User: Which sequence fits this backbone?
């Protein structure tokens, strides 16, 4: 240690102090830490955006060591990089999510509304109606919901054991058959015009309304596949050597399980039948040989007696 001058200031009343100097011979190194895991999640375009910015980083994106899983039922794309390196593996998940306001309407779900409750909701979401004037009229109709119920009950029993038990109910209300909405169904996708039907469930004084749209269900199926296929096309152009794997979904299993079962049963039955035929053929041959041998032995014994 080089000689250095040092000035020490004492507190009042202190006349002397002991100074200790510790010299470190080893370098104080920082601890070695494991790399942080990269696990990202975002919209359906996240995988493509990640590849677009990182494709030039050869250490991170080796196309032969990456793959993408496609789950159309869950509407997701999942990119896995450095697949065999647990320390440097990264995952990026893109998901096609429903537009929040579309979910709030509860279309094609088990969600039900009271008429007054639905009128308030429609009033606060006028922006999604094709015609604002019609929205106001619909709100008024729901606030002043009227329905006439005609019920008929027939219940009889005969001495010979015959019985009749019928109940019929006819409801006439001031509800319109349907109305039109203009609303995005998925995040990041354009708004769609859909026709929505109002379904009434009347049980005495208890009235519940639900919203149904066959057209929205068609759009969901079409847009889901369209959005995923658009992303896969972009990814294939950008990184053609990344393996893209379509996952088996429950829908596809339900769709093809009967044909697969029939084909499997045919092949299994064919193999069993072939085995039975083989054993049957061997048994017939053995019985024939035994019969011939028996006749020869019997003939020899008869000749000896003669």
Assistant:
């Amino acid at each position: 240690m080089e000689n250095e001058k040092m000035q020490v200031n004492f507190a009042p009343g202190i006349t002397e102090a002991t100074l200790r100097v510790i010299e470190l011979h080893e370098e104080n190194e920082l601890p070695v830490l494991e790399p942080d895991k990269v696990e990202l999640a975002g919209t359906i375009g996240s995988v493509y955006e990640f590849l677009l910015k990182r494709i030039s980083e050869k250490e991170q994106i080796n196309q032969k060591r990456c793959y993408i899983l496609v789950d159309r039922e869950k509407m997701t794309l999942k990119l896995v990089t450095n697949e065999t390196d647990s320390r440097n593996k990264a995952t990026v998940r893109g998901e096609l999510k429903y537009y929040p306001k579309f979910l709030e309407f509860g279309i094609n779900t088990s969600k039900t509304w009271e008429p007054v409750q639905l009128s308030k909701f429609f009033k606060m979401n006028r922006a999604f109606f094709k015609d604002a004037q019609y929205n106001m009229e619909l709100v008024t109709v729901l606030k002043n919901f009227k329905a006439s119920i005609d019920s008929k009950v027939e219940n009889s029993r005969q001495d010979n054991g015959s019985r009749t038990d019928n109940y019929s109910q006819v409801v006439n209300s001031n509800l319109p058959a349907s109305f039109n909405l203009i609303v995005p169904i998925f995040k990041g996708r354009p708004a769609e015009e859909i026709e929505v039907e109002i379904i009434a469930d009347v049980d005495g004084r208890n009235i519940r309304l639900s919203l149904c749209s066959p057209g929205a269900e068609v759009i969901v199926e079409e847009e889901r596949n369209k959005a995923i296929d658009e992303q896969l096309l972009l990814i294939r152009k950008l990184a053609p050597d990344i393996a893209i794997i379509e996952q088996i979904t429950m829908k596809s299993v339900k769709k093809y399980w009967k044909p697969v079962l029939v084909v499997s049963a045919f092949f299994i039955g064919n193999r069993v039948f072939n085995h039975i035929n083989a054993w049957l053929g061997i048994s017939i041959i053995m019985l024939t040989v035994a019969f011939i041998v028996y006749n020869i032995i019997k003939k020899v014994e008869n000749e000896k007696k003669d």
